[in-house]
Amino acid sequence: MANFQTHIAVSSALGAGYAWWIHGQYDIPWPTAAVAGGLCGIAGMMPDLDSDSGIPARETISFAAAIVPMLLFNRLQQYGMSVERMILVGAPIYLFIRFVLGPLLKEFTVHRGMFHSVPAMFIAGMITYLLSDSSPTTLRVLKAAAVSLGYLSHLILDEIWSVEVTLTGSRLKSSSGTAVKFFGSKPSANVMCYGLLLLLAFGILQDNPQAAEQLIHRAQVAAPHLPQPEPEPDWFVPPPDDFRAVPPTPPRYQARPMTDDHRY
């Protein structure tokens, strides 16, 4: 597989190109574009969270522990927190990721497991989307896409390095196909991975209710053969907002109450 320096160099180069592209394509301010490019560069290390060696896992955990509180900064600010409160929230998050989550991942994960997979790439992007502030949806999507791009670069490099080229030809190493995959060898890991993917997708829809409507609309446009809602007839006029139900009209002829003269 590609070494740590190669992953960092490639993902950082992709991040620089990505920042330049979104700045020109979407008129994103340079500081925001640079943050997205930096996320792409850091994401190039993320699949090695399950690495057996010390340096990739340690560096990746350290970067993740520092980046996550930064992504939460604007979101916490919207809740009216002061800088002191945000520091009190961010410090425990850093310590938890650095000294609790890191050892747990090292203990319960195997190298080239589901961390090296396509669903894990989407999971990384979804987590970035949810951690980002409530800025325009476009910026959140671009940051999430940057992380997924950096993550994907790591997977592709591992697959490229699994091909051994010699003077007599080329052959596939035993690690071929273990990076860009959709399922691992352990069913329990597959269930947990796809369960987390669905949970994050549900969280994104809850965080942005309009996303579900946009997805349905785009699906109907892309696939016009799908059943479409029936249009309202031309004669139908929706009632006004201040519409009130009219009480029923009493009958024209009502029975007169009987008097003493009518009694027998």
Automatic annotation (TrEMBL):
A GO molecular-function descriptor: hydrolase activity
Membrane-spanning residues: 55-73, 85-101, 113-132
UniProt key word Transmembrane: yes
Pfam hit, one: YdjM
Superkingdom as given in the UniProt entry: Bacteria
Bias type Pro residues, positions: 227-240
Chain residue ranges for the region called Disordered: 227-264
Organism per entry: Schlesneria paludicola
Keywords associated with the record: Hydrolase, Membrane, Transmembrane, Transmembrane helix
Protein known as: Metal-dependent hydrolase
